[in-house]
Amino acid sequence: MSKGKLEKFAEMETFRNVFQYPFSIIDNVPFDMKGHWNQDFFKNDNPIVLELGCGKGEYTVELAKLYPNVNFVGVDIKGARMWTGAKKAIEANLENVAFLRTNIEIIDRFFDIDEVEEIWLTFSDPQMKNAHKRLTSTFFMDRYRHFLVDKGIIHLKTDSNFLFTYTKYMVDVNKLPVLICTEDLYHDNLDSDTRKILSIQTYYESMWIERGLNIKYMKFKLPRKAELNEPDIEIPLDDYRSYHRPKRSGSETGK
Description:
By secondary structure, the chain is of the alpha/beta class. The chain has a single domain (3-243), classed as Vaccinia Virus protein VP39 (Rossmann fold, 3-Layer(aba) Sandwich), CATH 3.40.50.150. Helices cover 30% and strands 19% of the residues. The protein has helices at 3-12, 23-26, 37-42, 58-66, 79-91, 138-144, 161-173, 192-198, 203-210; strands at 18-20, 48-52, 71-76, 97-101, 116-122, 148-158, 178-182, 216-222. An 8-stranded mixed beta sheet has the order 1-4-3-2-5-6-8-7, with helices on both faces. Mean pLDDT is 90; it is low at 241-255.
């Protein structure tokens, strides 16, 4: 691990807005704030919104600025990236932002029933080889239902044709209520409130737009009841190399 990463990890240990519970320690170190995020950390009764796979936390921080009466929690396993968002939130005196460094596969260990109202999935790894690792798979939807309010909102914002197409099939197969679905976010006519939220752009998103990639967005509800079924269909893979981007892999470690 580079010196820069070591310094960031050391500094994050001092951040009051960061909670670090990777899979390797969660069985031995209990997380007592499950079901008590508002009471113990945010000190209010405002709704809680998660960003899963938050990376540098750009979206989490900007959403918190737009909506001071909503509490936001960015979740990722990459600590050196998360440091950026956590630091910005502290410097901006944002009291409605927290970050949780953990594996998203165990996200239901940290939030209790009805504790979360919405989930953002911003530019998630499409995991083209493993459906169970896709953050819009029924594997994860079942986990989200452990803590998301009934008919809670899922937002997907992505550059990936593969992930967007897969999610559309997953939503269709399970008859999940769709509120917004667009394959060209910045050129379709959307209401002003939606445009306000979606105007936030991450660093990489700006680069992809410059390279001609359409940004896709879907907003749907997740009912708590009814069995969820995986779509059984083949989807064309994304061609990342055409945009000089390295292929993303789920085998990367949580550094």
